[in-house]
Amino acid sequence: MSGHLLDPEWLARLERLQLASKRAAAGSQAGLRRAKQLGSSMEFADYQSYVPGDDLRQLDWNAYARSGKLFLKKYLDETQLHVNLYIDCSLSMSHGQSGKMERAVQLAAAFGYLSLCHLDHVSVFAFDKQLVSSVRGLQGKSQAPRLLTFLAGLTPGGAGDLNQALRSLGAVSGKAGISIVLSDFLFETGYEKGIAFLQAARQDVIMVQVLSGDELEPAYQGELRLIDSETQQAKEVSLTSVLLEEYRKSVREYQQELSAFAYGRGISFLEVAAEQSVESIVFQVFRKAGIIR
Amino acid sequence: MQWMALGNMWFALIIPAIVVLYLLKRKVEDRIVPSTLLWQRTLQNWEAVRPWEKLRRNLLLFLQLLAAVLLILALLRPAIPTDGPATDHTVLVIENAGSMQTREGEQTRLQQAVAAASGWVEKLGRGQTVTLMEAGREPKVWVSKSADQEQLLAALGQLTPSFGSADIGAALSLAGAIAANEPGSGVIWMGDGEEDRSASLGAAAYPASFRFMQMGRTRENSAIGAFVTQTGKKDVEGLVRIDNHGSSQSTGTVTIYDQNDRLLDSDTFTVEAGATCTITWGQLPASPVYRAVIEPQQDGLASDNEAWSVPFTTGVGRAALVSPAGNRFLHQALQTVGSMEVETMQQPPEKKGEARDAWVFDGVVPDRLPKGNVLLIAPDRAADWLPFEGTRELDQEPKAVAADDPLLRHVDWRDVHVAKSALLGEVPGMKSLVQAGATDLVRAGTIDGRRVVIVGFDLHDSDLPLRPAFPIFMQNVVAWLAPAQAAPIGPAHPGEMLSIPLTPGATQRVLTAPDGQKQPIQSSGTSWMLEVPDRIGLYRVDERLDSGQKSRFFAVQMKEGQSDIAPKTIRMGTKADAEESDGESSAANAAGSRELMTWLAAIALLAMLVEWRVYQRGY
């Protein structure tokens, strides 16, 4: 999965995009304010080995003259963004043919990659009912393989609980930034507290709900006992067209609830179908929604 | 509205069955889904926690119930009264048996049937025809496929009461055959069903639609089952058996009259339902015939309340023994065996017209047969009526070839030996009873209306007179040759063939019917076959003899089975019909009606089609 997590052909296109969040805007405004006191705002941070694809303008030619090696001169930038990616790894994300999990991971890779390209700090957290694994503080394009390797290694786990997972130790970084939650948001215990907790940690939250076609438009018929993949709870239904209509109504209502919750808290909420290609999600859905520009 | 097959009501159980199917928890298939969160929201109203769920408004359920109700209605075969026959061609069968003379209020059942049939005929529509049949002793077609109402009504008016039994099977078969030849035919049967059941006639495959219209409801009837009298030493003893065919106790009086309708004795009787009782009289004054009459309090059929009895008397017959050589054995046997006054002659009588009950010729062959029955022993010459072919020595033992003949009853031929016997040619009407090898020893039969027995051998050429077989054989022969003395005539039932033995030598014979009608008897022989008229009562045979007038009586009575007047049903058609319970629905059938079954079944089918469509569309 690691090699093909993202198609190399459009990685280049991805580089030209950047996350457009309110935090990012605030950062750039802060940069403008710091421009009045030139030099003080830019603080030397580190030298970094050049990798093909890095911005040539940032090459330290003096260092090259001295050592004959290409180094990038890195500055600690106040406008640097902390991007936190939360991936739902509960069983409900993996079940079925649609591959919600795969789609969520690809989206995370896309977000992470374009953030790395802009020298943002990228942290990725995988959770089900608790934090399962994480990789933190990635920065620079050179960290892209790490990011992708981490993402490729994610496997679906047990039952999901967003509220509990986000409140576990180390799930939220102390620094303000953007938090993107990729999940189906089908949690028995709800999602409100967890998202509110993220917001309280000065995070600009983006909720991306990934649902499969099966969930939006069930294709099965007849007398069924529907078993929850996470909780093993069973529901008996006689699937008639009347009931299917009811179900579609329920789905719409739930998405409206999520959307209303998000709107009320100034959160961006996006619905994504797992069957859609990553390219179309990124270039059309996210761009249209103004999350990426 | 009538229900022609109320017995199918059990099918209504399908309604609770359908409802239960909807109440029962469904059998489900397991399917794992990512999350049931969204389903939970949807299922709040649909969730089934208990095995029973609340009956929801469901279009399919209502359609199924509708189809079931329609099917039940169709099975009950509702019919609405119509004004006339429903078929284009109707075979109208009117049953005419003794039980149809039962009174139902003002009318007899037969009159009811005729009235119903007349009403039917009057309502004939344009293009509708009727074949009128009477189911009597033999089925009779009165009018064939006619639309002429006057002709049909006239034929109905000609139906006369019958006291015999009806051949239901033949009438059903004929009506079915007539109906089968004509498309759109139906058979309507008006009657009380008889005791004969149609189930044995292969009813399921009846070729036409069949409707049975029950005539009558009464079942209470008492009848004289038997009335016999016997001459004792001084008086006459009588016995009456009274049968109660009804369902409640029957009481009444029984009275005995003599020939001149003089009351001899009277008694009362009480018979439980379905039982019989016997009343006897020990000292009835002498009379040639007696009449017993019962008067029950409740009685449907009057014709079986009267019975006649002719006392069993053994009269003395006259026999002539012609034996030129004399025959002690024969003379002794004839004297011994019975009621015969034996006159001995040396030669056959010259004078014509001399009559005896029986003539016995021993070693003599008369030129022509005398008046009366004949026993011929050891013929020695041919005559016009006897093809004599000589004699033959016998070396084989006699053997009875017709052992079941009444003449050979209890006669043992095993130790009998015969030295020689006459050889006779074929005589029409005679059959061989005993043979030795190929030679006939004893023949019996009818020649020229007379009963004749020929014994081919001389008794002296045989040890037969020394055997026990001899007196028995002679007794049988005399009893057969002189039946007029041995047993009374009858009793007989209407429509039967009755053999009436005649006294030889009578110059004039007349049969007098109960209503006084006289009918001369044209028969030169010693018996006369009479087809018993369809009229019950006491018949008299008068014979004018040289010695004066001789009268004998016989009674024609209804068959015992006809006294059971309880209405029964004839069913034709489907098996379901046959399973239906008796009686109830049939009385209602008297009116014409049109069944709605086909329409209901069609609507039920439509409902099922709609249901199928609804199921497919998943409403």
From TrEMBL, chain A:
<dbReference type="InterPro" id="IPR002881">
    <property type="entry name" value="DUF58"/>
</dbReference>
<protein>
    <submittedName>
        <fullName>DUF58 domain-containing protein</fullName>
    </submittedName>
</protein>
<dbReference type="InterPro" id="IPR036465">
    <property type="entry name" value="vWFA_dom_sf"/>
</dbReference>
<dbReference type="Pfam" id="PF01882">
    <property type="entry name" value="DUF58"/>
</dbReference>
<feature type="domain" description="DUF58">
    <location>
        <begin position="47"/>
        <end position="255"/>
    </location>
</feature>
TrEMBL record, chain B:
<feature type="domain" description="Aerotolerance regulator N-terminal">
    <location>
        <begin position="1"/>
        <end position="78"/>
    </location>
</feature>
<dbReference type="InterPro" id="IPR002035">
    <property type="entry name" value="VWF_A"/>
</dbReference>
<feature type="transmembrane region" description="Helical">
    <location>
        <begin position="6"/>
        <end position="24"/>
    </location>
</feature>
<dbReference type="InterPro" id="IPR024163">
    <property type="entry name" value="Aerotolerance_reg_N"/>
</dbReference>
<dbReference type="InterPro" id="IPR036465">
    <property type="entry name" value="vWFA_dom_sf"/>
</dbReference>
<keyword id="KW-1133">Transmembrane helix</keyword>
<keyword id="KW-0472">Membrane</keyword>
<dbReference type="Pfam" id="PF07584">
    <property type="entry name" value="BatA"/>
</dbReference>
<dbReference type="Pfam" id="PF13519">
    <property type="entry name" value="VWA_2"/>
</dbReference>
<feature type="domain" description="VWFA">
    <location>
        <begin position="90"/>
        <end position="194"/>
    </location>
</feature>
<keyword id="KW-0812">Transmembrane</keyword>
<feature type="transmembrane region" description="Helical">
    <location>
        <begin position="59"/>
        <end position="80"/>
    </location>
</feature>
<protein>
    <submittedName>
        <fullName>VWA domain-containing protein</fullName>
    </submittedName>
</protein>
